[in-house]
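User: I want to check something. If I give you two sequences, will you return the structure for each one separately, not as a complex?

Assistant: Yes, each is folded on its own. Here is the first sequence with its structure:
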Amino acid sequence: MDQFTYRTKGVCSRAIEIEIEDGIINRVEYIGGCHGNTQGVAALIRGMRVEDAIERLSGIDCRGRGTSCPDQLSRALREYLAK
C-alpha cells in the first residue's frame, strides 16, 4: 500500500492525504478546505481506479482560480502515477 501527502496549491485545503493499493484509491483525507465538499469527494472516489479518478476530477475550477480541491486531487494522483 502506498501512502503519501500532497501539498495543495491555490485552494482552501492545505494538503491531501492519500492511500492507494494496487491502483485503487483506499482513502483520501483533505486537510482544511470546505469540510462537507471534501468529504463528499473523498467518499465518491473511494474504491475507484487512480486513472478513472484523474479523468473525472481534472480541470474542475473553483471560483475562477484555475483549480479546485478535486482538481488538486487529480494533480496529486498524476504525480503518483509519474513516479
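And separately, the second sequence with its own structure:
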Amino acid sequence: MTRNNDLKPANDDDVFEVGAPLRTGRLDQILGFHLRMANVAIYQDYTAAMGDLGLTQKQFAVLELIAANPKVSQIDIANQLSMDRATMMALVNRLESRNLLERQPSPVDRRRQELLLTAGGIEILKQARSIQEQHELRFTSRFSPEELKIFIDGLKRIYIDVLPGSAQPD
C-alpha cells in the first residue's frame, strides 16, 4: 500500500540525469523483479548460444522431456511446462516440420498423440545439450555447489504445487 509521503514531488536533487543508471526504487525489494531480470539475462544468453541450432528454450525442454519419457503425450508435456494446448500444438508442429520428432496415435487411446524423437531429433538434442551445458555454467559457476542447491530449492518452493504438473515427485 502506498502512503502519501512515499511519492513526494521531485526536487532538483532527484532529477534523472540522461545516461545515468536508473534508480530502481522499491523494485529492488520485489522478488518478481529480480526473477524477471535473471530470466532476461538467461534468455538472452541462451538465445545467442543456440542461434546456430535455432532451438528455443521451450523447444529444448520439449525435446528433453520426450527423450526422458518416450511416447509421452503432448498434453502431458503441456501440463509439465504450464503451456496451453494451442501453444503446445504449434511448438510440436514446428519440431515435427524440422523432422526432430514424430507423432503417433496411442494404441490405447486414438485421441492421444504420443511423441518420439527422430534420429535427427536425437542428434540435435546431443548438440543442444553440449551448448546448454556451457550456457548453464556461465550462470551456475557464480555459486558454490551448496549455494546453488539452496537457490534451486528456494526457486522450487515458489512454483511446486502452484503450477500444474509441477508437484514434487515421490
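Because they were folded independently, the notes below concern the second chain alone. DSSP finds six helices and three strands in the chain. The longest strand covers residues 101-105.
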